[in-house]
Queue: 4 jobs
Job 1
Amino acid sequence: MKTMKKLLPIAFLTLLFFAFNSPPQEEWVVPEEYVNMKNPTDPAVDLNIGKALYKKHCQSCHGKEGYGDGPKAADQKGDLGDFSTAEYQSQTDGELFYKTSFGRDDMPEYTKKMPDDEDRWLIVNYMRTMLEE
């Protein structure tokens, strides 16, 4: 009985710990063919189209500045990322294109909403402008 009295608080604290600490999101693995994919669009051209597409499709979750603080962000379970960080910006265009295209978890797939690959590449170009100075 003494052992049970000692274990009960430990079990309770362990339960609390796991209840309030969500597990880290698993790493987002991008297929090699996308990692090395080259962006076929010119970032200096059509940036306003990329901005408009971002505003329509991405801003509600990722926020105006890409901080992951859009009005729908609180409803999402995973990490929305911060597009302004050097870590985020160090990804290749192909990695960003893959994530933008195919999504995972709360991030929806956009190949049906935006079937034209060029539109998703233009969003990648716009996300590149969000680097923190």
Job 2
Amino acid sequence: MQNIADFMSTGHRECDVAFAIAEQAASEKNWSTAEIAFNDFSVNMARHFLMEEDKLFPMLLSAGGPDAPVNVMVMEHAQMNELIDQIAHSLEKKESETYGGLSETLLIMMQQHNLKEEQILYPIADKLLEDQRENLINSLRSCL
């Protein structure tokens, strides 16, 4: 059975791929490709955040998981969502320089955020939720 860390990290990689395609297309002013890839990215990110905030994090906290890291992740989700909205606006306006600057900021945030989740929070979840892992992953899959 797949563990929580691997399952959730796969979601990170899928978002990263769509984000990179959108960023490259925007830099080339290929707006139709950028829009399609960015929409894919933003839908996948929203789904990933929902899985964490509605399913993973509540179960982790109920099992005695640490409040502070979970609260930081939720706060960072809100910050990233704000940047995603700003990037979407720059994409709509076809402002490649603004898009590039905002996407670089978001990329750095995502890299740092994902690192904390993958190296700290997900391993804690795997340990504390070991007996519930299969049910949790099945529940998370239902969000896809």
Job 3
Amino acid sequence: MSLFSSISVSASGMAAQRERAEVLVENIANADTTRTAEGGPYRRRDVVFQSDTVGSPFSSIFQNHMDAQSQGVSISDIKVDNSDPERRYLPGHPDADKDGYVAFPKMNPAQDMVDLQGASRSYQANISAISAVKDMIQKSIDLFR
């Protein structure tokens, strides 16, 4: 794998973690949403990663000489949790049913915060990898001077 390909792999990881963070933030923001446009409470969403071939615009010249393709990551799907919502007894709530129960999203905001920290750290790790490759490229150029 060339140095430029490793930049593309890290960039794909950054894009995937950014989208994961967006979904997690949406989950946290809607933790108490009892009414959506689709009807019913908000449904928690999770991203599904998949391995994906990435190409680097810089390494296209070298593709004739390289056999292996670089493997990065992408989002294959965003799964919606269709489990039964959590029911709480709140008879005065505008969304309460005839028995006084309100359907709330079934989620754990603390778990989503931990997942968000993991996405942030993964994003930072990809930035560090790109920075290390950039430094290697710079040192290689300095050697040829």
Job 4
Amino acid sequence: MSQILHWVSDNQQILYIVILMIFLGVEVIGRVPAVLHTPLMSGANAIHGVVIIGAIIVMGKADQGNFLALGLGFLAVILGTINVVGGFVVTDRMLEMFKKKT
């Protein structure tokens, strides 16, 4: 328990920033109109490719015996890929709505 309290006291500023980011993100996303929500989210999902690259780098630099880093990196690659593909699918479906029907 003392190790946890020591870690919290050492990283207090980072924890405050993360908590502030959570509140700020909820407020910003909550104020986006429904018409803009889909295009913004599909674009944000496409940017999620940075997470995939970061996870691949972490997995490449991890030791062979560090199963936690390898497992989390693998999970990040899988979930990031699903997010990127989903973003492109949503964008494609949205753009299909604006094409003229023959």
